[in-house]
Amino acid sequence: MQGQQVREQDTSEIGIGVSDVYASAFPELAVPWEAGEPERPALLVLNDAVARDIGLEPRWLRSESGVRSLLGNELAEGARPVAQAYAGHQFGNYSARLGDGRALLLGERTNALGELRDLHLKGSGPTPFARSDGYAAIGPMLREYVLGEAMHALGIRTTRALAVIDTGRRVRRDAELLPGAVLVRVARSHLRVGTFQYARSMRDEELLSRLVAHALERHYPERQDDDTPALALLDGVIEAQAQLVADWMLVGFIHGVMNTDNVSIAGETIDYGPCAFMDAFEPTTVFSSIDHNGRYSYGNQPGVAQWNLARFAEALLPLLDGDETRAIEIAEDRIGRFAALYESAWLRGMRAKLGISHGEDSRAASTTDSDEAVHRDTELAQTILQDLRDHRLDYTGFFRALADAARGDDTAIRAFYTSSADAGSDQRSAAGADAWPRPWTEAWRALEPDADAMDRVNPVYVPRNHLVEEALDAATAGDLAPLTRLVEVLRAPFDVRPDRARFALPAPAGSWIGTTFCGT
Ligand code: AMP
Ligand code: MG
After folding, report:
1. Nearest to 444 by CA among 371, 363, 382
2. Residues 404-436 as b or e (16 or more Cβ within 10 Å = b)
3. CB atoms inside a 10 Å sphere around CB 519
4. Contact at 8 Å (CB) between 250 and 349?
5. Which of 121, 131, 169 best tests ligand 1's pocket when mutated (most atoms within 8 Å of CB)?
6. According to the model, what pLDDT value does residue 361 have?
7. Closest Cα to atom 16, ligand 1: which residue?
């Protein structure tokens, strides 16, 4: 990144070289801190692709010295690890001081594109922000690895795990003693809405402006020269979040804890806690054991994202206009644009899923779209989703079966509706062989769906909750083989693998897991 001092060395015996861009730019928002030194660390997984992207040599990282460096125990000169300060709304309630309680920013490295990437630890021991023991169990840290790889392969912005290391230390979670782990993750940055809320609470306009300039330069350089930087940043983040949440909705992902401290300014999926992918399509689905009111259910996510962005705009108010009333008007106008941005991102993606984009880039805004076509396709998509909901059809599997139907083979889609009817209790289900075609099928076919294009955007494999849990349970018991197999499949989510058919199916009856635990 230009304009900012980047001090980095290549890897060597002296440890991973990192710059201290954030630590030196924001001493007010960082507490210098050192990572704990586990006695018997053991590398569980190393992400070779991520390592190479930030110029680290995987073979060296696997060495004793490499693992020590990953843990932040052996860093090259100039590294200044810090716990980052942030505030945040958790389930709607404001906490003035959250911060990295068990995490550290080691520093930054430059990737192959010349962009800065944060190297960050989670589970590295208590910091002054700790709210609990400061450690992490291997299950949740490996979950971040699995989900991050899956999201990345699906083309969705996400932080990614570089490594997960067993610390040899046991951590107590409820009544259990579990193996502890440190996650080493790579992110575009760890700037969160909560970072801006914290900066705002310090009533230091110069600090807030500096933070805005830093975020703009780092994540939205094309907007840097705008007259009102804070407004340019707000617009950038609104757009990025609209796309991100649309992407989540299109793959059936439920983040689970969309608190403002878990909303990345770079627009990445961050802090995988009790998250999950839906099997049967049901917008009220909630997985998180801590989400009692369904605040962060699947269907609420776009609304919550907008709510979180309003908190971001509030933090920026003094920089939007000198006159507070005017600043609020500006903020409200911009936040009001989120819905349209979200809806168009969603419709672009949904058209691609239904095979009716016809060559249009599923991410780029369309210029030729008539209101009529938007209305028609939105209605069609809503009708189909309502049908999925009525029949409790598997969301991921449905779109692949639909692609088969587009190429003239309706065996799979017919089986979907028939088995839904067989499931019995649901009065709304259509019966047996009459189940296909559906009332909407003709309208969809009239749009000449492109089956091959559908298969390029509709995954066969997503990290289904029962598969993730199964892999994490095995890993916790010492067997990493199921996790390795799962990640391998998730890294090529659009390629059918006949030998991995089980990974494409929803949870078998009786083994569906409806609750995911925060597992901090
Ligand atoms: P999260 O739910 O992971 O977004 O975390 C919310 C806040 O609690 C953050 O400030 C975390 O650093 C802190 N926190 C979560 N788990 C722990 C832990 N085991 N030890 C110390 N602090 C924690
Ligand atoms: Mg968090």
Report:
1. 382
2. bbbeeebebbbebbbebbeeeeeeebbeeeebb
3. 18
4. yes
5. 131
6. 64
7. 520
Residue 501 C-alpha to ligand 2 middle, in angstroms? 34
In angstroms, the CA 382 to CA 20 distance is: 48
Q: State the DSSP code for 124.
A: S
User: From CA 410, how far away is CA 415, in angstroms rounded?
Assistant: 8
pTM: 0.94
Residues 28-54 as b/e (b if ≥16 CB within 10 A, e otherwise) read ebbbebebbebeebebbbbbeebbebb
* 8-state DSSP, 291: -
Q: Look over the chain and give the mean of its residue pLDDT values, rounded to a whole number.
A: 93
Position 434 pLDDT exceeds 80 = no
* Start-to-end C-alpha separation, the chain: 34
pLDDT grade for 292, boundaries at 50, 70 and 90: confident
User: pLDDT tens, 170-213?
Assistant: 999 989 999 999 999 999 999 999 999 999 999 999 999 999 99
The secondary structure of residue 464, as a DSSP letter, is B
Per the CB < 8 A criterion, the answer to whether 265 and 219 are in contact is yes
Mention every residue, 6+ apart, whose C-beta is less than 8 A from residue 129: 31, 83, 85, 97, 98, 99, 100, 101
- Ligand number nearest to the C-alpha of 520: 1
Instruction: Give CA–CA dist 503/66, Å, rounded.
Output: 34
Confidence of residue 15 (pLDDT cuts 50, 70, 90): confident
Catalytic residue (one of 118, 261, 291, 455):
261
The closest alpha carbon to 82, from 108, 105, 116, 102, belongs to 105
| Ligand 1 pocket: which of 84, 90, 97, 98 to mutate (most atoms within 8 A of CB) | 98
Q: What pLDDT does residue 422 have? A: 56
Write out the two tokens for 379: 């209605």
Average pLDDT (109-135) is: 97
**Does residue 499 carry a catalytic annotation?**
no
* Per-residue pLDDT at 430: 46
Place of tokens 């403002």: 260
Share of residues in the chain with pLDDT > 90 (%): 86
- pLDDT surpassing 50 at residue 146: yes
pLDDT given at position 5 = 44
Residue closest by Cα to atom 11 of ligand 1? 101
Tokens at 128, concatenated: 């002054």
